[in-house]
Amino acid sequence: MNITQIITEIEKSDPEFLQKVDSRREGIKSFNRFVGKVTLAALPLALGGLFKKSYGQTPSGVIDVLNYALTLEYLEAAFYQQGNNVAATLIPAGPAQQAIATIGSHETAHVNFLKAAITGSGGTPVNSPVFDFTAGGLFADVFTNYNTFLAVAQTFEDTGVRAYKGQAAALISNNDVLTAALNIHSVEARHASHIRQMRKANGFGDVKPWITGKDSGIGEVVQASYNGEEITTQAGVQITGINNFSISTNAASEAFDEPLTMMEVLNIVKPFIK
Amino acid sequence: MMNSGIDLGSGDIGILNYAYALEQLEAAFYKQVTDTPYSGIIAAETALLTDIRDHEIAHREFFKNALGAKAIPALEVDFSSINFTDRSSVLATAKAFEDLGVSAYNGAGKLITSPDYLLLAGKIVSVEARHAAYIRDLISNGSFADNTVIDSNGLEISKSPMEVLMTASSFLKSKINASNLPTS
Predict the structure, then answer these.
(1) How far apart are CA A36 and CA A149, in angstroms?
(2) Which long-range contacts (CB under 8 A, 24 or more apart) does B34-39 make?
(3) B23, closest residue in chain A (CA to CA)
(4) Which of A40, A73, B80, B144 has the highest local Cβ count within 10 Å?
């Protein structure tokens, strides 16, 4: 989509767009500066910044990202709530039950935080979808079999990490929202690390706290959540054996987690939404 | 104190040098840990601490190459306060470094102007968080995300470069000048 088309689209949804931009000399000046400078790939970002200047409020793109994050947090929070409700028969007593309770409480806190952040930014939080954690029977014993439960938990956490990472650039013009998203992102990674250790300790999967290649240690059924993690080149720099250090292909892939796009993540979680 | 010493630089380059400095510190620490393992170390710990060392070397060398001529020089570390033969001394330091690294990347995200660099920082910070959780669980199982690092909203507590460098400086002989870093 070129810049003219983008503006045409915006005018359709907001007929006063150009007028708003026009009426603010600074807005139109910076608009011209942007158009002169930015590459096509950076355009949505540039427009986001322009929106903020023209409208003086949080751009809808940021609210969209927050609602996307909220949807994923609804998924995780509901998953752990249901698991915790049957903890007595699902999760070994002691440290395991405590860990799942801790993780669940964080996910619920994320839901509440994001709802407040969206409302506070002038947006409307989306409602929670209704979930089917068996994914239509794919994980039929998810709340009766500890192995299955931890496999789904690991997949949700690793996917969550990739999902937040995929939106960082879209939030770059809003420092507060970006920082909050980063501060959730690393908590999801801590969860992922712990769940992976739990699976390893129980002999459920030969996994490390970090992701090696694109191996899930679970199976083909969750592969979409791990594809792309095997990358060993970052910003054109080959990490394997970098500067003659003995960095293996595995270590090179583990050292960097990779993002997923919103579309990729929504396809991954779709089977869990009724 | 911050106005003399090795200048990290300004803008995104300054932030990349800041990350490069922290990765230098971490990589040097884990190299020492794997060169002189603490007494009573078990095979699983050796394997994963070696992984972490390699991840930190990968991060350090990546920043060095990405920065090219703008990279700060190799830093001189001061690990005199660490007893590398003692498991609890080593793991306590590892925990401090990993938690510090996560809070540093999270706090620096908003200071980065390039979406590409922001994504790269994001790719690294989640790996540091995975390390942090593992090290914490080695010290005390279940402490992977306790309330010393996570607030009541379930958010990691991030730190500014000044706060981070204050802590890091006690492990560095080299003096860091962060006065040209962006602050917003």
Answers:
(1) 52
(2) B36/B84, B36/B85, B38/B84, B38/B85, B38/B86, B38/B87, B38/B89, B38/B90, B39/B85, B39/B86, B39/B87
(3) A255
(4) B144
Task: Return d(Cα B129, Cα A186) in angstroms, integer.
Answer: 6
- Bridge-partner residues for A246, per DSSP? none
Burial of residue A107, with CB atoms counted within 10 A of its CB: 0-12 exposed, 13-18 middle, 19 or more buried: buried
Whether the full predicted model's pTM is greater than 0.95, yes or no, is: no
Q: Are strands B176-177 and B6-7 parallel, antiparallel or unpaired?
A: parallel
- The pair of structure tokens assigned to B13 is 């380059």
Domain A3-205: state its class.
mainly alpha
B67 touching chain A per CB within 8 A: no
| CA closest to A169 among chain B residues | B115
Residue A234 sits at φ, ψ, to 5 deg, of: -125, 125
Angle in degrees, 0-180, between the axes of helices A146-167 and A60-85, rounded to the nearest 10: 170
Interface ipTM > 0.90: yes
Distance of CA B140 to the CA centre of its chain: 21
Query: pLDDT by residue for chain A (274 residues), tens digit each?
Result: 333 344 344 444 444 444 443 343 343 334 333 333 333 333 333 333 333 433 445 777 999 999 999 999 999 999 999 999 999 999 999 999 999 999 999 999 999 999 999 999 999 999 999 999 999 999 999 999 999 999 999 999 999 999 999 999 999 999 999 999 999 999 999 999 999 999 999 999 999 999 999 999 999 999 999 999 999 999 999 999 999 999 999 999 999 999 999 999 999 999 999 9
Dihedral angle over CA of A43, A44, A49, A54, nearest 10: 100
> Are the CB atoms for A148 and A222 separated by under 8 Å?
no
Residues of chain A with C-beta less than 8 angstroms from the C-beta of B58: 239, 242, 245, 247, 251-252, 255-256
Stretch (H or E) spanning A233: strand A233-234
